């Protein structure tokens, strides 16, 4: 209950503070690419429930030549203004309304596409669905600092699911098991630092402090958190 109250309060404050960015993003999408302002993505949330996650649209509507739930570096579907929205993470701001709706939290494992969850998550990795998904997490930060630039559009989905996803989920499992208000606060501060550092041109970042525990979790037996599911 306290966590939910904090999420709601902080999200309301953020919506007010970032309202100029909402306006800039909405106008920019409208004038640079035909189509809706928002992208509505199906994602897997708490206890495997499917919900609609909101983002500012960063891709062209016509995607007839390339289909993948994973966005590669230099992805041809992303238009120029959308690329800036993605680099600055402004495209994620509409998820503040997902938080207000109780579908997400400020800090929690990044929600994933249902197809990727269904086909690539191991039983152990389903532990990340035990808490609300979030705007940021250890895995989210790691993906932003270490992984995005590694994805090639030719085999982006394969590389993501085989090489990047296991580490990303293991990092989030550390947070699921050890999460606290103090830990969540550190994640928020780390996220802000990384975004501003990238904006100022930094491209190399240290490994996250959870990496050692994450590597150990990748090889542990799964915890049965859904005892009645098959």
Write up this protein.
- By secondary structure, this protein is mainly alpha-helical.
- It has one domain.
- It has nine helices and four strands; from the N terminus they run ααββααβαβαααα.
- Helix 6 runs antiparallel to helix 7, helix 6 packs parallel to helix 8 and helix 7 crosses helix 9.
- The longest helix is centred in the C-terminal third of the chain and has 23 residues.
- It is globular.
Features:
230 residues, mainly alpha, two-stranded antiparallel ribbon, two-stranded parallel ribbon, 4 strands, 48% helix, globular
Report a brief summary of the structure.
The chain has 230 residues and is mainly alpha-helical. It is 48% helix and 9% strand.
Task: Lay out the secondary structure.
Elements: H1 2-17, H2 19-32, E1 38-44, E2 50-56, H3 80-88, H4 95-100, E3 105-107, H5 114-120, E4 134-136, H6 138-147, H7 156-178, H8 181-199, H9 211-217
Helix pairs in contact: 2-3, 6-7, 6-8, 7-9
Order of helices and strands: HHEEHHEHEHHHH
Strand content: 5-15%
Structure annotation, total helices = 9
CA radius of gyration = 17 Å
Indicate the multimeric state.
single chain
**Overall body shape:** globular
From the N-terminal CA to the C-terminal CA, the straight-line distance is 30 Å
Number of domains: 1
Biggest beta sheet attributes: 2 strands, antiparallel
Report low-confidence residues grouped into runs of 5 or more: 223-230
Q: pLDDT average, as an integer?
A: 89
Q: Strand order across the biggest sheet?
A: 1-2
């Amino acid at each position: 209950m306290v966590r939910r109250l904090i999420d709601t309060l902080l999200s309301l404050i953020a919506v007010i503070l970032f309202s100029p960015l909402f306006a800039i993003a909405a106008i920019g999408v409208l004038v640079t690419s035909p189509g809706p302002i928002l992208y509505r993505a199906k994602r897997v949330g708490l206890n495997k429930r499917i919900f609609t996650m909101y983002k500012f649209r960063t891709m062209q509507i016509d995607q007839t030549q390339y289909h993948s739930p994973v966005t590669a570096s230099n992805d041809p579907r992303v238009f120029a203004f959308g690329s800036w929205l993605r680099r600055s993470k402004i495209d994620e701001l509409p998820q503040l309304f997902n938080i207000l709706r109780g579908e997400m939290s400020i800090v929690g494992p990044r929600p994933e596409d249902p197809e990727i969850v269904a086909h690539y998550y191991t039983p152990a990795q389903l532990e990340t669905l035990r808490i609300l998904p979030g705007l940021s997490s250890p895995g989210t930060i790691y993906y932003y600092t270490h992984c995005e630039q590694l994805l090639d559009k030719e085999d982006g989905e394969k590389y993501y699911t085989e090489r990047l996803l296991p580490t990303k989920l293991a990092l989030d499992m550390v947070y699921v098991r050890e999460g606290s208000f103090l830990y969540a606060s550190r994640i928020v501060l780390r996220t802000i630092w990384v975004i501003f550092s990238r904006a100022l041109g930094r491209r190399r970042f240290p490994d996250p402090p959870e990496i050692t525990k994450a590597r150990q979790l990748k090889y542990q037996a799964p915890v049965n958190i859904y005892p009645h599911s098959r």
